[in-house]
Write a structure and sequence with these properties.
The complex is a heterodimer of chains A (about 110) and B (about 120).
Chain A lengths: L3 E4 L2 E4 L5 E7 L7 E6 L6 E5 L3 E2 L7 E6 L2 E6 L9 E6 L6 E2 L3 E5 L1
Parallel strand pairs in A: 2-11
Antiparallel strand pairs in A: 1-3, 3-8, 4-5, 4-9, 5-6, 7-8, 9-10, 9-11
Chain B lengths: L2 E5 L2 E3 L5 E8 L8 E6 L5 E7 L6 E3 L7 E6 L4 E6 L8 E8 L8 E4 L3 E5 L2
Parallel strand pairs in B: 2-11
Antiparallel strand pairs in B: 1-3, 3-8, 4-5, 4-9, 5-6, 7-8, 9-10, 9-11
The chains are: A mainly beta (about 110), B mainly beta (about 120).
């Protein structure tokens, strides 16, 4: 199975900060990657698909980049509602695999 | 409005069985692959399996192969997960999800609220 490794596991940031989260695949996955946001007690929400395409209704401060093995989720200006855990998911091949998550906390 | 509502969770002893259901509405169910994802308490997300639009193509994570079976009833807009030979490590919230129809993508664009399965003696 393809391993997805996210970094960092957690980070502290302030409102207005630029935040970047990295996801690395154990083998090339083209651009077959999505990013999700999950708040406590809630279902995940799709933010980005195909590595860089913004899901409908998602604010433009979220962006994704990368291809092959290295991917980045960027939040250009962190808002109070963005404090959550973020996951990447590769859909290049079965079994689909998630990263372990990155918790974004308030500094 | 797309809605996915899971049911069937509960407490079951190790070795027991449970059948989860997911009722879908607000979209053309038979046009979409569907998925199950689980999350153990305090842990990350784990993909469990996908089922194709007709129900014949099924794909599972290795840890549930031979124990879990996905199925669907397109006439009733329903998705199911039959879980047998349950183990302690199957304890989790189980989410059903709708897979996007974007070409070449199997990302999950809608999720249910989840149902808790607890395996304990």
């Amino acid at each position: 199975a393809i391993q997805m490794t996210q970094s960092p596991s957690s980070l502290s940031a302030s409102v207005g900060d630029r935040v970047t989260i990295t996801c690395r695949a154990s083998q090339g996955i083209r651009n077959d990657l999505g990013w999700y946001q999950q708040k406590p007690g809630k279902a995940p929400k799709l933010l980005i698909f195909a590595a860089s395409s913004l899901q409908s209704g998602v604010p433009s401060r979220f962006s994704g980049s990368g291809s092959g093995t290295d991917f980045i989720l960027t939040i250009s200006s962190l808002q109070p509602e963005d404090f959550a855990t973020y996951y990447c998911l590769q859909d290049y091949t079965y079994p689909l695999t998630f990263g372990q998550g990155t918790k974004v906390e308030i500094k | 409005e797309v809605q996915l509502v899971e049911s069937g969770g509960g407490v079951v002893q190790p070795g027991g069985s449970l059948r989860l259901s997911c009722a879908a509405s607000g979209f053309t169910f038979h046009n979409h692959l569907m998925t199950w994802v689980r999350q153990a308490p305090g842990r990350g997300l784990e993909w469990v399996g996908n089922i194709d639009q007709g129900g014949s193509g099924k794909y599972y994570v290795d840890s549930v192969k031979g124990r879990f079976t996905m199925s669907r009833d397109n006439a009733k807009n329903s998705l199911f997960l039959q879980m047998d030979s349950l183990r302690d490590e199957d304890t989790a919230v189980y989410f059903c999800g709708r897979v996007s129809t974007v070409p070449m993508s199997e990302q999950i664009d809608y999720w249910g609220q989840g149902t808790l399965v607890t395996v304990s003696s």
